[in-house]
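Listing 4. Sequential folding, example run.
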Amino acid sequence: MRASLGRLLYLLGLPALLLLLLFPARVWFAREGLRWLYILLFSSLLSFLLVRPIRAFAQRRGIVDRPDERKLHGGPTPLLGGLAVYLAFVVSLLANSILTPAVVGLLVAGTGVLVISLIDDIRPLTASVKLGAMILATGVVIASGISLRLFPIQTLWGQGLNVLLTVLWIVGLTNAMNFFDGMDGLAAGLAAIAAVFLCAIAYQSQQVFLGWVAAAVLGSTLGFLPHNLRPGKQATIFLGDAGSNFLGFTLAAVAVLGEWAENRLVNVAAPLLIFGVFIYDMVYITVDRVLAGRVSSVKEWVEYVGRDHLHHRLEILLGSQEHAVLLICSLSSALSAGALVILMASPASAFLLIVQAVAILLMVSVLERSGRGSA
């Protein structure tokens, strides 16, 4: 029954995509002020349709993720799902002529991250090579004009700190997204949630380009999810490092593209809440690994691979991968909802929302400690 429904959706999706490609359709959406919806529909349909041929290619070439003692899936699963997400994202922006210097820089850098990660999916690279590639890609993004502006740009020290924070933000979130790509639907689901709230904030603050790019990320992720999140069944394809790294890199850069501290410094808390789950997991495992003596240098931290992330420990505690995914996605949604309110709240209310978010994460850390013993 489910297979028949999938074939039906595929057959319906192809003419729907062709209809969207017609010039009058694109013009109508733009005229009605629904360009964001056009991008969302286009990218989701294209991503959904691309997964099947890409999955077949990965199977023929043997580009599959095989289970081991660290991985949670039951059998060999095709990788390269991230390629469908990437192509849908890029084509949807190109088809809508969204090519500002910042967007071009994002596309070039994102392509670089995807290529190096694809190579890693096929023939694993060292952690230092991947980290160097991400830093280089972040440099391309910064050169295109996408950079944090928390410190005075008129001073050399201010520019230096802005660049440093941008590198830490983008590289950190890229790796954090990759860490969460360990359960069916988790990384893609978290990416979709982040994109939804970036779209909402773009609408709320009238940041048109932020909304368009975020809609492209959302659509390309939603089109992929039906193949990756199948309750009661195993995913038919994984994002792979190419997909998780590309999504993490792109979302982190898109967040930098937004204007957060133009009116109030407290607004900077909004992206921190949207990506709160990623930041929390990164900080938690770093502190835990250092205190436990498992890592003692940056090199060891970069190369360390373990089952001590939030989703691993919640799976142990709850006894179910699906429940762990649901809990983490619910947590991310709750924190992200606070980001929307902060932008409209008074300073006192915004402060209370931040305190509430910290309290929620502290409660999660207590739960996580319960699953620590088997991690």
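-- end of first protein; second protein begins --
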Amino acid sequence: MKLSVIIPVYNEVESIQVILKRVQEQNLADEIIVVDDGSKDGTRDLLKELDGKNGVRVVLHEKNKGKGAAVRSGMSAAKGDVLLIQDADLEYDPRDYATLLEPIKEGLADVVYGSRFLGASHRVTMFWHMVANKMLTFMTNILYNTILTDMETGYKVFRHEVLDNMTLHANSFDFEPEFTAKILKRNFRIFEVPITFNPRDYTEGKKIKLHDAFAAVWTLIKYRFVE
């Protein structure tokens, strides 16, 4: 089972080398696809130096298109049997990879979500951000008759064939609800596992904003009724 780790990046010059080192230390990724989404802070220069070394492949967007567009570019480039999405902002810990991959290795799941709300250790911060996440997850459960605890998680792992005959359109943070809606409508087997979480706040560079929550609501409703 070959693993492709997809890392969407935008202005992460201070964290990109750290996250790459952490991913490589797990010795589980057969390829690491870093998609730079038009960074302007020096990230691109670093990535050009790292391209082709230690399993890293770099894809460059000439302008900023959004996280969803970067993830989709990474998916198109990925050659692995299993794909894992890894944010570059150090909120998610690659030491959780073994736990995330286990349900797929055991043949129990097609898709695994790393849940921030299943009791693993986490930094205590951003109450209203948590409330928004839980409300969006609750809405997902109502619309799609499921029992997820963390629809918005950045840790999504899935067999490559899950993408067969699936067209994704999201360019921004609406990737999470669109992908979730489409795998639920296709009845793929989904497992959730607990993950550690160290969120950064807006003063530290967190990019998702309140308007992204409204976009997620619309996305969940839209894809309940259309493809």
